[in-house]
TrEMBL record:
Protein name: Zinc finger DksA/TraR C4-type domain-containing protein
A UniProt-annotated Pfam family: zf-dskA_traR
SUPFAM superfamilies: DnaK suppressor protein DksA, alpha-hairpin domain, Glucocorticoid receptor-like (DNA-binding domain)
Top-level taxon: Bacteria
A molecular function GO annotation: zinc ion binding
InterPro entries: DnaK_N, Znf_DskA_TraR
Zn finger residue spans: dksA C4-type: 96-120
Keywords, in A-Z order: Metal-binding, Zinc, Zinc-finger
Lineage: Bacteria, Candidatus Kueneniibacteriota
Matches recorded under PROSITE patterns: ZF_DKSA_2
Gene3D superfamilies from the UniProt entry: DksA, coiled-coil domain
Keyword presence, Zinc: yes
Domain Zinc finger DksA/TraR C4-type stretches: 91-123
Organism: Candidatus Kuenenbacteria bacterium CG08_land_8_20_14_0_20_37_23
Length: 126
């Protein structure tokens, strides 16, 4: 069963909004380096400048470390969102990349970036 057009459009709209949100959040503490692998945007975490006192320096290092971790999480989410948008564009969205069967509608609603059905995901998660 192929995804209905209404759900496909709603999902695309949701994914586009999420893409903008993720890019805006990344822009708060990174700089864009340019296109990296597979034409994906590459980001670098900026080092905060709180001042020159030793306490401020320690805060800068702690903040930088947190931002590096957050950057990795946001980039992974962005990669998933952009991948889902590419699958929509090329007509493969909603099809499991492993068994090539339709992904359950409930799974699409719960996790719009899914590229695999529940059965395949469970078998690979063991």
């Amino acid at each position: 069963m192929k995804l209905n057009k209404r759900l496909m459009q709603e999902t695309k709209t949701e994914l586009l909004k999420e893409e903008v949100r993720l890019k805006e959040e990344l822009a708060n503490f990174t700089v864009i380096l340019g296109a990296g692998k597979k034409n994906m945007t590459s980001y670098a975490t900026t080092f905060p400048d709180f001042g020159d006192k030793s306490g401020e320096n320690a805060s800068e290092v702690a903040s930088f470390n947190n931002n590096v971790s957050l950057k990795s999480l946001l980039e992974a989410e962005l990669k998933d969102v952009e991948g889902a948008l590419k699958r929509i564009a090329n007509g493969t969205y909603g099809i499991c990349k492993y068994c090539h069967k339709p992904i359950e509608e409930q799974r699409i609603k719960a996790r719009p970036t899914s590229s695999s059905c529940v059965v395949c995901k469970k078998s690979f998660s063991k």
